[in-house]
Specification:
2 domains; 341 residues; 28 strands; mainly beta; four-stranded antiparallel sheet; five-stranded mixed sheet; 13% helix
């Protein structure tokens, strides 16, 4: 009896020590990591995505948002009304192994390179949240990751930073005009979901409605304002969609980089590039989509940052570490973020 008790006591001590070790190995406050409800893989990722032509998609409305990726001749879009129910799509786009990670509670869609530390992995939905934001896990090591923080916050790959892959987010109406020959993720997912219904009621427009604690809660802008955040080392700057009520190009500096932010509220489009070519006097030009802007020398810029006509044809503006999300989420993860006025 005594020996059994000692074995049991030792087991409890081991469990306690192991739990403390796991808690101390978080890069974020473990007491602020919340269970979102469905549990691990309760929100299933899409690991065998199926695609249709633009004409084959009937379930989307013009104002629905999609996120897209361009890799050479391969152009694909992933609709928010599907991502709302699955949050992660593991895909191969040409030679890119990408995870489209999307958090409906923070409105953030970010492309992740699935090659991590020399290992190709898939990502799944852990069911955990930090600052109301998705915590994916990788299926190679079962480590936990911060979607907006862009790094591993618990597990074998602790502190590893993710490599991002540029995405384009816009309305379905605009996407069809930009890329009429593209491939669109369809509802043949292997799961029975109500893809035509938004699962979170008025969450997208109700600035007072947050399901989980957020700290700090930055109230400089309304919580659900959509912004594009540009991250450059220790600097971050946010640009509101409302700035682009008149289609325009903003020339700015973040950190030591000169950047351009191109946007249209009517087209629900915001893009950010490093102005690595020193283009001057860029102006909006939506007359020949997917061309979106032209500079003083006649260089015509495409939505992917490439120059398609003019003296610099074939060159490209460098992509930035930038993504769109609800304001409250960017303020929580990057408290020193500057707001462009």
């Amino acid at each position: 009896m005594k020996r059994s008790y000692l074995i049991f006591l030792g087991f409890l001590i081991f469990i306690s020590c192991n739990s403390q070790r796991n808690a101390s190995d978080w890069l974020i406050p473990s007491e602020e990591v919340f269970d979102g409800g469905p549990g691990k893989d309760g929100i299933p990722s899409i690991d065998n995505p199926q695609f249709s032509s633009v004409s084959g998609i009937q379930f989307l409305n013009d104002e629905d948002l999609v996120v897209g990726i361009i890799n050479g001749p391969t152009v694909r879009a992933y609709p928010h009304p599907i991502l709302d129910w699955h949050e992660i799509v593991n895909d191969e786009v040409g030679d890119l192994q990408v995870a489209i990670t999307y958090c409906p509670l923070t409105g953030t869609a970010i492309g992740w390179d699935r090659n991590v530390n020399g290992t190709l992995t898939e990502f799944g939905v852990s069911g955990k949240l930090f600052n109301s934001n998705l915590i994916p896990y990788d299926r190679a090591t079962d480590s936990y990751w911060s979607q907006i923080g862009l790094n591993c916050v618990n597990g074998e790959w602790l502190s590893t930073e993710i490599k991002t892959i540029p995405l384009i987010e816009t309305s379905w109406k605009t996407w069809k005009a930009l890329f009429p020959s593209s491939q669109i993720l369809n509802t043949t997912t292997g799961f029975n979901r109500s893809y035509g219904e938004y699962p979170y009621q008025d969450y997208k427009t109700n600035h007072d409605r947050l399901f989980f604690p957020v700290d700090p809660l930055d109230t400089r802008l309304p919580a659900k304002d959509r912004v594009i955040a540009v991250l450059e080392n220790n600097d971050a700057k946010a640009y509101r969609l409302a700035l682009f009520g008149s289609d325009k190009v903003i020339e700015d500096t973040v950190g030591d980089k000169n950047i351009v932010v191109i946007g249209s509220q009517e087209k629900n489009l915001m893009l950010a590039f490093e102005n690595s070519l020193g283009l001057e006097n860029l102006t909006i030009s939506f007359d020949q989509l997917p061309l979106i802007a032209v500079d003083a020398d006649g260089n015509k810029l495409g939505v992917d940052g490439r120059i398609y006509a003019g003296p610099r044809t074939g060159q490209r503006l460098e992509p930035l570490n930038a993504f769109i999300g609800y304001w409250f989420s960017l303020g929580a993860f990057y408290p020193e973020i500057e707001i462009y006025e």
